[in-house]
Amino acid sequence: MPSPELSADSGSTVGVSGPDAVRLSGITKRFPGVVANFDISFAVKRGTVHALVGENGAGKSTLMKTLYGMHRPDEGTIEIDGTPVSFTSPADAIKVGIGMVHQHFMLADNLTVWENIVLGAEYITGGFRPKAAIELISEIGAKYGLYVDPTRLVESLGVGDRQRVEILKVLYRGAKILILDEPTAVLVPQEVDELFGNLRELKREGLTIVFISHKLDEVRSIADEITVIRRGTTVGTADPKRVTNRQLAELMVGSALPIPELRDSTVTTHPVLDLASVTVQEENGRAVLSDLTLTIHAGEVRGIAGVEGNGQAELVDAIMGLRPLAHGTVTLESVDITRAATRTRREAGIGFIPEDRHRQGLILEGKLWENRILGHQTRPPLASGVMINRAAARKDTQRIVDEFDVRTPGIEVTAASLSGGNQQKLIVGREMSGEPVLLIASHPTRGVDVGAQAAIWEHLRRAREAGLAVLLISADLEELIGMSDTLSVILRGRFVGEFDPRTVTPEELGIAMTGGEVAGGTTTESVASSAVTDSERGGAR
Amino acid sequence: MNGRTKFLLAVAAPVGAAIIAVIVTSLVLLATGHSPGDALDAIVGAFGQNRTLINTFNVAANYYLAAVAVAIGFKMNLFNIGVDGQYRLAALLAAWVAGMSFMNGLPSVLRIVITILVAMIVGAAWASIAALLKVTRGVSEVISTIMLNAIGLALGAWLLSTDHLAVAAGNNVSTQPITEGGTIPTIAIGGSSTPLYPMIGLALLVGLIYAFLLSRTVFGFSIKATGMSESAAVASGINVKKMIFAAMLLSGAVAGLVGMPELLTGREGAFSLNFPTGIGFIGIAVALLGRNHPVGMILASLLWSALDASSNSLQGADIPKELVTIMQGVLLFAVVIAYEIVRRARRRLEQRTVARTLAAAPPPGGGDPDAGGFGGGGRDDGPDDPLPAGPGTPDLQKAVSS
Predict the structure, then answer these.
(1) What's the 3-state SS for A240-308?
(2) Which of A198, A340, B27, B255 could form a disulfide with B83 if both were Cys (CB 3.0 to 4.6 A apart)?
């Protein structure tokens, strides 16, 4: 059990006395073959924001589904406001005042805001009474500072507004306890700030919020108390005022975190990739990459920092030949490949770890060894002439599974059955096969567990020592600073600065990423400035 | 997932669908005042005759060829509805070439090869119109092939007149009949008035090539990869437009073969107004039923053709032969639904098996001492011990409450 003394430390925000709003004791949930939750216990005080953190797959969502009545626990009890409850469906949970805001919005685009809110809850206004419903919604909106025009069509709303509609939906049903499942996953930093403002408002009004996330900066800024889940069970409760990101992360994974860092410089003078005045335009003629010039040498990791959506994806596409250039040239090992097809570029030795592994990196329904062939389908040992060499594909897949520690029962299972980290290790292993000269690594450790992260970093280091040139794009500034030999900052499709990762601070990088001046410290975009704040926190360890 | 479960899952869908089809058809029979028992007797009785059996095989060969043509498209998420128009136009022009007088001087094998080649080229050419539209203008092949069917029908009717490619034959018009040596002799079977068509061999050969192409070649891999994830295929350097074009052409070429058994072994030896139509659409059904699998489609085409063959004996028992159509329709519906259910079940099962295998035996170097005990009990201390065996720092101890 979390100790009551701790909550006293966490400040005046926690002041409501009486029984805990939510108390889970000894919750165990088994699915055939796996135990998703084991002996989970924690309590949430009324009028607080309680964060539940844990790695992907740690069992957070299963637990919340239990609390929301989507399935029943095999063991353990749930108490709401001191009364034991047993839910057979979410309707039961809603009745006692629990509301859930799902990570993926469940809204009908072609209906208006009020229609979406009322849908399935017509009984609240005693039948279908639009006027009364709209009034009630406006009232709730005003009370909690969550105003969205009830008559607007949902399809015309931005992501932040849609989320507010989801929250209104549960408030409309009388929720006093809100479960938010990774609510910030789809939001830009500015919207995250707005959401947190809303949550604080809700808290002031006495509502209780259970906040699920794995973004530690956010958790520490919003939560009154943090419960950490690892491998399906609660491993501790922490005070957000006193715990650091690293401590939390280590608690989440149960071991010391890997540190991204390079050993001695291996940068040579041999240029592998040369971009000269590369310009990419959208169909309407707007430039998404303007006049980029860049050289990466053998044994060099070139990091690209930038707020997402500033041309990183287009840069990757330009190098991979997935998008035509308006101007400029791309040269690989002194060969002009500006007009070469993607296949030719891959055959010339470009490895590619895509940003979205499900979309570009894998055939999810394909077996592991079939995925090994992907991108290498024209090269030995996987192909001999027009034929696929299935034996060689299987053998080399087994090699990758062994060398890169891909946790799988075998190579005949589909890629979809592996966890994200293992899928990524398979991709990294594949892209480092066939002796590439250049590796494009786009968010190589995004969404993978720390074990996989450490392994991927180690493989990058080794490949770099062996003379591989790497283009590293990442949103994780710590990774960028630690793993790069040189750092470029990209903003609105242009390189706006070059930094030495040995001396640069995350703050400086963040300011450059958002278009501010390093000396003056003026930032031009508020969206970007909150990204800076995040990265500051991320880096200040 | 062990081999037995895998096999059971694979068989469950078609068998389940067949049972549902039988039940629904029986209900229809009862509702219309017929006896399902009589119908069954009639069908079983029909297959007591060699003639029905032979007929089933002959027709199945046509269906199989059409199914392979459709399946090539399906593997790439291309829906070639135009097989019907492709094979009819191909058969017409191939029959016209085969009936030309210069052919008489050529050796028999060459004549047959030329006829087949012409059919394949015409089929591919007709399909290439849809392919070209798709690749250059993004026109959906579903729409364009349907429209090309209509155009092909009109074009065929226009060509099949005595002003152009046809000659009058009684009150029928047909292309110049192929003279002896240009056709393939049939195989007479004892006890059956219908001979066996040797073109079954052609269908099997096409099936073999189809299987080989898909599983063993770079081209086949690219087709499958594009079909399963176009975005991943593009990122892997597969030229998707080229693949669409090639697959569509190949599909058209195989479609061109659909009319060959009838033309080269049929009674008329010519393309006439009586030339069978609609096989292209049956091919879609057979490909769905056989899941684009080379062997699955053999079984599906046999089943479809057997149902067709039984329709005559049903009439003999005073049961409307439309019953067969109902049964085929229900079968198709049930099978498509059953496959989807099995596909999902299989994926869930596999994910679960993978999770279980990994949970049971963490590979060496897994690092976490909890791994083995996860779910295996022995964790009575639970959350009261915030730092179980973890290498926590003293700072962490302070920050974390018990």
Answers:
(1) CCCCCHHHHHHHHHCCCCCCCCCCCCCCCCCEEEEEEEEEEECCCCCEEEEEEEEEEECCCEEEEECCC
(2) B255
The pLDDT tens digits of the residues spanning A216-233 come to 888 888 999 999 988 788
Q: ipTM beyond 0.85?
A: no
Please, what is the end-to-end C-alpha distance for chain A in angstroms?
A: 29
Q: Which two tokens stand for residue B88?
A: 């009819």
- Which residues in chain B touch residue A421, judged by CB atoms under 8 angstroms apart? none
Residues A313-340: pLDDT tens digits? Answer: 999 999 999 999 999 999 999 999 999 9
Compute the Cα dihedral for B332, B336, B341, B346 and give only its sign: positive
- Choose among A42, A347, A365: nearest Cβ to B228: A365
Dihedral angle of Cα A330, A332, A333, A336, to the nearest 10 degrees = -50
The amino acid sitting at A232 is G
Question: What's the pTM?
Answer: 0.73
How far apart, in whole angstroms, are the C-alpha atoms of residue B90 and residue B131? 17
Q: Find the radius of gyration of the CA atoms of chain B.
A: 28
Spatial separation of the C-alpha atoms in residues B277 and A181, rounded to whole Å? 57
B222 touches chain A (CB under 8 A): yes
Contact B347 A417 (CB under 8 A): yes
Q: Which residue from A6, A342, A363 is facing B229, i.e. has the nearest CB?
A: A363
**Phi then psi for A429, rounded to 5 degrees?**
-60, -45
B236–A342: do the CB atoms touch at under 8 Å?
A: yes
How many Cβ contacts (< 8 angstroms) between chains A and B?
196
Instruction: Please check the confidence at residue B356 and state whether its pLDDT lies above 60.
Output: yes
In this structure, are residues B30 and B38 in contact, taking their beta carbons and an 8 Å threshold? no
Lowest mean pLDDT among A4-8, B184-188, B312-316: A4-8
Among chain B residues, CA nearest to A401: B363
User: How close is the nearest chain B Cα to the Cα of A524, in Å?
Assistant: 35
CA separation (Å) from A485 to A128, A265, A272, A351, A498?
64, 7, 15, 19, 11
CA angle (A178, A182, A186) in 5-degree steps: 120
- Using alpha carbons, list the distances in angstroms from residue A355 to A103, A280, A317, A397: 21, 19, 11, 22
Measured in degrees and rounded to the nearest 5, phi and psi for residue A467 equal 100, 15
Measuring CA to CA, how many Å separate A407 from each of A55, A198, A366, A418, B236? 17, 42, 17, 8, 24
Q: What are phi and psi of A209, to 5 degrees?
A: -125, 130
How is residue B276 written in tokens?
A: 């069978």
Angle between helices A130-144 and A159-172 (to 10 degrees): 110
pLDDT under 70: residue ranges of chain A: 1-17, 32-35, 56-57, 186, 188-189, 256-257, 516-541
Tell me which residue in B224, B232, B400 faces A359 most closely, judged by beta carbons.
Answer: B232
Give the residue with greater pLDDT, B373 vs B344: B344
Residues B246/B226, Cβ–Cβ less than 8 Å: no
CB contact under 8 A, B375 and A322: no
Q: How much is the mean pLDDT over chain B? A: 83
- Is B253 in contact with B124 (CB distance < 8 Å)? yes
Contact (CB<8Å) A256/B391: yes
Instruction: Tell me, yes or no, if B322 comes closer than 8 A to chain A by beta carbon.
Output: no
> For A250, phi and psi rounded to 5 degrees?
-70, -35
The confidence band for B103, taking pLDDT boundaries of 50, 70 and 90, is confident
**A489 interfaces chain B, CB cutoff of 8 Å:** no
Contact between chains at B400 and A247 (C-beta distance less than 8 A): yes
* Binary contact (A409, B353; C-beta < 8 A): yes
Testing the interface with A: which of B5, B215, B236 to mutate, by most A Cβ within 10 A? B236
Q: Does A339 touch chain B (CB under 8 A)?
A: no
Q: In whole angstroms, give the CA distance from residue B115 to residue B98.
A: 6
Residues recorded for chain B = 402
